[in-house]
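Example for tutorial group B:
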């Protein structure tokens, strides 16, 4: 990446501003110190534009939003400090690039201009969630332009796609740009706090501060919605936006901190771009991706390449798995070979995984770039017993005399025991636990 500088998560409590917080500022000194260091690091990187997304900007149900005005202003007037005000020019060129890229990715984007605000009675300006981080950026010397984004109650995966799309628009604009996600964590950390108390708050914050520095979107996507709702957060969707922007980027987390003195979790982390992650895919995965894309473009199966390797000339069962932002997007395979060679097996099953998995809608060409492929080459299944299974080494097939069959691949997240593995395989085969069934095991050669 030449123009995307990096990203950061910053909290936004107005009490963090010295003129408002006064002596209370000392109770969150860890957070304030980190925010100051992050602001200085950002300014030293000399960004022309700062993209900021806030949960306190207008929030939409089925779309995201972007402010369109020559300038945007905001103040701390509602907290009794009208003198604390900021005004920044909007980077119209980048805004237009973002709008075009969102349209190409089918991301619903609401344009927030004066006419829209008059019709909806929405304020066009810098909200408090954006103002607090910008206050520290201003004090550190930031004098560039801004892009002001609004989150929507769209899925977390769509928020990641939005972040990734904005990153791509930044590269097209050829302007040095930094992305800032404004958000607080749980608002229910302490008993007697204004937002109430929930033990889920601490767990939620621990999950965030464990996964975010590692840019582990999968861990956050796997959180139970009940836990998220009980925590009473406001920063999760901006965090997913940040994760989407950092997808494929090499970065070492800096200034990671956490505070919760007033019953609200304040987390900080800075990511500066260190280049693109070096990702070399196997021939098997390249063939699977080419197969699906060719089919989506032409409606025809990819012809068998003339230069397939010795390994792909053999026969075996093959499973092709698709993931998008850490979540399964499709998986279809064959236990035993049905084609003349592994290459043909991959070509067929990649198409089926992307278009015929009944659990998912068909993959579209526009989302193909966001799909991560893996290819499993299966050994010949062998009859076995429960005692000879290992979910990290062997896949399992459960088969009844009536022909019902359930299969589970090895090395799956969340499947750690043999009992769990057999239970899931039975569910997949619609086999009741009281039915008699045989167990087969197999190994896989997994390609990424």
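The residue assignment follows.
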């Amino acid at each position: 990446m030449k123009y995307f500088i990096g990203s950061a998560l910053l909290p936004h409590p107005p009490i963090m501003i010295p003129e408002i917080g006064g002596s209370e500022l000392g109770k969150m000194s860890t957070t304030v110190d980190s925010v100051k260091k992050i602001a200085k690091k950002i300014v030293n990187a000399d960004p022309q534009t700062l993209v900021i997304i806030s949960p306190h900007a207008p929030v939409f149900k089925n779309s995201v939003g972007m402010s369109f005005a020559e300038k945007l202003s905001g103040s701390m007037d509602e907290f009794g400090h009208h003198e604390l005000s900021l005004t920044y020019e909007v980077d119209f060129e980048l805004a237009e690039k973002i709008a075009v890229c969102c349209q190409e990715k089918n991301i619903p984007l609401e344009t927030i201009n004066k006419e829209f605000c008059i019709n909806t009675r929405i304020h066009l300006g810098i909200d408090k969630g954006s103002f607090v981080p910008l206050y520290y950026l201003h004090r550190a010397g930031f004098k560039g332009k801004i892009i002001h984004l609004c989150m929507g109650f769209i899925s977390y995966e769509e928020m990641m796609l939005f972040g990734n799309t904005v990153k791509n628009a930044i590269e097209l604009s050829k302007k040095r740009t930094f992305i800032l996600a404004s958000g607080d964590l749980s608002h229910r950390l302490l008993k007697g706090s204004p937002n109430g108390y929930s033990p889920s708050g601490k767990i939620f914050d621990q999950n965030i501060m464990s996964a975010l520095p590692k840019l582990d979107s999968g861990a956050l996507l796997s959180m139970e919605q009940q836990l998220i709702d009980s925590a009473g957060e406001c920063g999760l969707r901006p965090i997913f936006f940040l994760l989407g922007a950092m997808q494929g980027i090499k970065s070492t987390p800096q200034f990671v901190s956490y505070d919760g003195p007033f019953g609200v979790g304040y987390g900080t982390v800075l990511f500066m771009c260190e280049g693109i992650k070096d990702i070399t895919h196997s021939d098997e995965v390249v063939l699977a991706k080419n197969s699906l894309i060719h089919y989506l473009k032409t409606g025809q199966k990819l012809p068998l390449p003339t230069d397939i390797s010795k390994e792909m000339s053999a026969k075996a069962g093959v499973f092709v798995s698709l993931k998008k932002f850490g979540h399964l997007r499709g998986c279809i395979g064959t236990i035993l070979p049905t084609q003349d060679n592994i290459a043909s097996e991959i070509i067929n099953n990649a198409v089926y995984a992307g278009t015929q998995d009944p659990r998912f809608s068909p993959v579209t060409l526009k989302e193909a770039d966001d799909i991560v492929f893996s290819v499993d080459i299966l050994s010949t299944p062998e009859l076995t017993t429960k005692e000879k299974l290992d979910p990290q080494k062997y896949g399992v097939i459960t088969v009844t005399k009536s022909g019902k069959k359930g299969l589970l691949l090895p090395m799956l997240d969340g499947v750690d025991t043999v009992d769990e593995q057999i239970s899931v395989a039975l569910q997949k085969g619609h086999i009741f636990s009281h039915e008699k069934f045989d167990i087969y095991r197999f190994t896989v050669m997994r390609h990424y």
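Residues 26 and 74 are 26 Å apart (CA to CA). Compare this with the pattern of hydrophobic and polar residues in the output above.
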